[in-house]
Amino acid sequence: MEVLSVVMTVLAVLAVLILPGLPTVLALRLRPLMAAASVAPLSLTLIAASAELGSLMGIPWNVGTPLVLGLLLGAVLWLPGRRLSRRQRTPADEVLADQLPAEEVPADGAPATDVDRDVPSPVQRFFASRRGEATAVVSGLLLGGGLLLVQALRIMGSVDAVNQTYDNVFHLNAVRHILRSGDGSAWVVGGMTQLEGQANYYPALWHQAVSLAVQLSGQDDIVLGSNVMILAVVALVWPLSVVALVRSATGSGPVGWFLAGTLSAVSVAYPLTLIGWGVVLPYLLALSMMPMVVLVVAHIAAIAPAGPQRPGILQLSVLTPACLAAVALAHPQSVFVGIVLCLPILLWATGAHLIDAVRRHPGALARLGTTAALAAVGIAGTAFAWTRFRPVQSSAVWGPNTPRLGAIGQVVSLSPNATLTWEPFGVLMLVAVLGVLLWTRSRWLLASWVAGAALAVITRSEPMGDLRYLLTGNWYSDNNRISAVPILVAVPLLAVGLDAVARRAARSLPALRGGIGITLVAALAATVLVLSVVSPANRASIGYQTGEWQTSELLSPDERELLERLPDVVPEDAVIATNAWNGSSLAYAISDRPVLNTYMGFEAEPEVHLLNARLDEANTAPEVCDAAAELDVEYALDFGPREIHGRSATYTGLNEISEDGAAEVVLQVGDAKLLRMLPCTGVDGQLNDFSD
């Protein structure tokens, strides 16, 4: 792997995640952290929109389409954004008030009086400045994102490794399908495994983004492009979303912002589990932006603190649909994740505003009306969608793996699925919960976390049956997908709670407001990161994820080498007979050559099924010979009988085809063989010569 290829791919991935949404971010005059966290959801929404618009208008798929769409949106928003933006220079005393413990900031966001707070120390004044804020935020992001990056690379083994799981065959080939067809529409991706004219919608935002990155990099390496996108989502998009949530929607201070970034790496349950399990890359992408959905819901519900970090009306009116669309278009299951995490927030806010209205707080009735209406819509929408848009019960095949008490311990201690309770994290989580309950006004985070945690406990412990399907069937009752849900709010909850505890300690012990306090916070962050690395639960899960990458169950090194050499032998328009179950169908993604079968599950013409079963009879069965000629099948890949998931020789027509006289070996690496079909006679007696 050449360093230049990696660098070009990294730059291309960053460009795809940033450039389309950048004009809108600039037009909205978002604050730096909010802008950094918002640009990926905005870019991805524009990418999805441009894919469908480009398909309708016959515009070939390329990065210019979302860039132009982004420029147009930015131009439309520029003037109103300039007029209505709330991004103004904030005096230091207002920043300090914004960073006071949440219980010391009145509901209307007005600064606490001097009687309510102590005189800030020089260290506090530094972190109240823009430079101090940036220091807290960036250092947390570097620690948490850096650890996630290192762990993800350790799981992969190398940045160009091929994930050896079932779904990866589809994800890699779908990117190639977009590039070869020149059309990024979700229906084009859905049509890859369907009969012509029967394409279905498939959530293709992941594949659209990766295809643009591959195209822009000039490397035509889909494996590398996909892996770099994984790393960017894990180590950049996710931590930024978490920090933005804590900074904008809670009353946390610099310690909380720092810990939010650092603790983004605290649990393998998310995001690292999802880079190996499945591999469900679209779901990984969707959940990485879910904290932004929580952020906008908290602001709409008017339970986030008022102040300079609150988005303006125009900003919120653009960010809300963009974040919701990006998450939903990345993976539809994220809609149900959003319901689980955000509906409790709306209900909590409705209750809080009702209490304020009874106490006759100014503006409480208006806030109550808004949140009550939203909560009612949320409840009605949930009742309508929950059972109508879930998979059939026969697909909910994952069962429980621990008793209920063990499941509670695992979820509270942030342990990944099918691992042990890690008591130190359990204690840390309980301390944070107490901190949030006793000393902050961000208690709404608890409502969201409890809902996600309850869902995770149910999927780990509830017996198979109708109740389990009712509550978890929207995720196929998949324990790994659901175990990721509470982590999305557990990390912000940890950051806010530990920040509250730290500030309470600093009020009691003034010495902690200086360098000693910074040292202790740094030591706490380092300790937590060490605990996450040595956690038996996290280590067990990482070991499993590593096994999903660093094996040869799907594609061996010899088979990978043959696929990389294949373009030197096979013409661009020649179709190759392949078996997705043994990895040979990755010739589509890796070799850029059309294949007979792009994925394990597909619908195809009878001739395809005939060749899968009897291609080795082409020299003796005229109907097989004609089918091969009709489908332009000139080559075949023989990767042996061993297949993923313990299967063997699914497509009998490809097994030892060279020994039956139907084809000859033209390229071999180890036991992996590329064969060219030999001339054969069709039903009408005509000779089909595949070398023509």
UniProtKB/TrEMBL annotation:
Q: Does the keyword Translocase apply?
A: no
What transmembrane ranges does the database entry give?
Answer: 6-26, 33-53, 59-79, 134-153, 222-245, 257-277, 283-306, 313-330, 336-355, 364-386, 420-439, 444-461, 481-502, 514-534
The answer to keyword Cytoplasm applying to this record is: no
Q: Which InterPro entries match?
A: DUF6541
Pfam families in the record: DUF6541 (PF20176)
Keywords from the named record:
Membrane, Transmembrane, Transmembrane helix
> What is the name of the protein in this document?
Beta-carotene 15,15'-monooxygenase
Q: Which organism is it from?
A: Brachybacterium muris UCD-AY4
Taxonomic classification, please?
Answer: Bacteria, Bacillati, Actinomycetota, Actinomycetes, Micrococcales
